[in-house]
Amino acid sequence: MNLDDFVFPGPELRQGIEYVCQGDRAFLQIEAEVGVLQVRRWPPGFASLVRTIVGQQLSAKAARAIFQRLNQLMELTPGGLAAASEADLKQAGLSRAKIATCKQLADAILTERLRLETLPSLPDAAIVAELTQIKGIGPWTAEIYLLFCLERLNSFPAADLAIQVSYQMLKGLDSRPTRQEMTALVQPLEPYRGVVAHLLWHYYRFRAR
Question: What is the CA radius of gyration of the chain?
Fold first, then answer.
């Protein structure tokens, strides 16, 4: 499974881009400077959630390499990961903490304490509450899942370092905004805060490399 391909925005996302750019014209600069937005789209489910866990506090390149090794090691299903040894998972590049999180996630799904297939019917806050009951899954992981897998365009991972750095570059700020500051800064752009995230990641990929 390749979860690192990018796709062009569909009609709803393009509508969101227009809305964001009307609300804050600084965002017009992004596509003008670095090209048409492309975004990640991941299929909902266990493998994509594992990919998100893998990406916690890691560069995109490192996370991609670890996830590829996991795919070579096993079939990325709850049963497959539950059966994998800690030694094999560590050899693939997972930290002890991420191994524990993935194991707990697999167990929660296998015992039906967490049913990923029901999440699309829930509001954003309820999905975050469901996912963060798993130790090691925090708001950032849940918000990424909302954006990449469920296409919830108001989900905004304000703690994301790349988003903060990108906003600082875009606005020419002296310092990087904090999570609380980012939340406040994009609040006027609801219900398309997730579009802001996609635009800022796109800007970061081209400006920060």
Answer: 17
